[in-house]
Amino acid sequence: MTKKEINEIKSLFDTIQDCGILRLAGCYVNGEKIKIKTFSESFYNLPEDEMYKYLEIFRRTLSGTPGKNLIDMQFTDPESDDTSSGKGLLNKIRKSELKDEGALEHFYDSVIETYNYVGSFLILLIYQSYDIPGITTDEIEMEDASDEVYNYILCSICPMKLTKPGLGFDDDLGEIHTLKQIFAVELPETGFLYPAFNERSTDDTAILYSSKKTDILQDAFIERVLGVSAMLPAKQQKEGFNEFVSEVLGNESSFETVLAIQENLKETVSNKKSEAAGETVFLDKESMRNVFEKSGVSQERLEEFDKKFDDQFDMKKIHEKQIEAEIQSEELEVEGSISGRAPDYVPTVKVEEKLFADNVAPVRSFEVRNRNMVLRVNSKHTDIIEMKVVDGKKCLVIELTDDLTVNGIPVEA
Q1: Distance between CA 278 and CA 1 in Å, rounded?
Q2: In whole angstroms, what is the distance from residue 149 CA to residue 90 CA?
Q3: Beta strands 365-370 and 373-378: pairing type?
């Protein structure tokens, strides 16, 4: 989904009158992973102040950056009729308009079993119908020109945090008393939209996945419950790409070569963004290989490219490294459980075929760092920096301009 398409759905939650939410369902799960309360009711039966609080949760579920917090995911088996998970289960819930209690209970149980979270949380589901307005060539909505109704479900998973102890004023007694601690609903950590709203139309081959954290994507929940392919989190895409470049270059990892890769990568992304006209831009293996070739990487090192790319972005290997790291850092909590996740779970997806461009490309700055200094240069002006040998020593030479400052103090260049 493009940013514009996401914002179109997100804007439905701006007012109660326009939201079109037909039904709300939910399940409160305590820290022992026990269902404490489930509910299902008409959204418009709620008090108005509660409705606005729910709308804020749904807006936040669709907030973030496409490719980082908001990720398009395809079903691994889009033709499956199995209603126990994946597309089959989500369709069953959607078509029942959240009125099939058995399907809802099964969904809650599946989330509880796979969702990696220590503490209480709230699972929220809404069913909504959106009469998609037509749009003229100059982007003007024609509300009476709709030819499709987009029926979808939105799920938000919110942490429940115990309020802080303290004193407060009791209106009924007119006295100061210790405040009662309760579990309050926080803004969502995770969620999804099904079906996706691609090209302003229903796309039941995909979902839009939402994650507040860019380094954790709940692999087991994604694959076992939603039935879509887990992908590499944004933070690991960035870190993995840096490691991949270093391994491919080997002894050719010079300042000039790395700078050339960064420059050509930036140019490739810029060209793709111009062609995409606002859509999310990804880089696949072929695009990256072209960048390396253009940057003067030798044929000998390019022969390592494909294998190292597959090794670096193999989700199974990444997951195994995560488990090993958690064990080494003594985060193994109880038998058979690592932070609430089954340690024997391995994502089924093999290799990441494409990476979100903004996760790996130098967007704003070019950074040079060692143990004694950090230098950041605007990515548009990397031509002001070069490497030279001065008095037998390798040095970075930077062109100085008249607006030079030191700790904010203007100095003469």
Answers
A1: 11
A2: 18
A3: antiparallel
Distance CA 392, CA 124 (A): 65
78-104 pLDDT, tens digit each: 888 788 889 999 999 999 999 999 999
Q: How far apart are CA 348 and CA 319, in angstroms?
A: 11
Q: Residue 32 carries which side chain, given as an amino acid letter?
A: E
Distance CA 69, CA 217 (A): 9
Long-range contacts made by residues 100-109, C-beta under 8 angstroms, separation at least 24? 101/40, 104/25, 104/27, 104/38, 104/40, 105/38, 107/225, 108/27, 108/29, 108/35, 108/38
CA distance 379 to 392: 29
Could you tell me if 242 and 265 are in contact, meaning their C-beta atoms sit under 8 angstroms apart?
Answer: no
Dihedral sign, CA of 323, 324, 330, 336?
A: positive
- Amino acid symbol at 390: V
Other beta carbons less than 10 A from residue 271's beta carbon = 11
Where residue 321 falls among pLDDT bands split at 50, 70, 90? low
Residue 209: name the closest of 273, 161, 157, 284 by CA: 157
128: β partners: 21, 152
What is the reported pTM? 0.74
Query: What is the residue whose two structure tokens read 């809404």?
Result: 126
Q: How far apart are alpha carbons 294 and 261 in whole angstroms?
A: 8
168, with CB counted inside 10 A (0-12, 13-18, 19+), is exposed
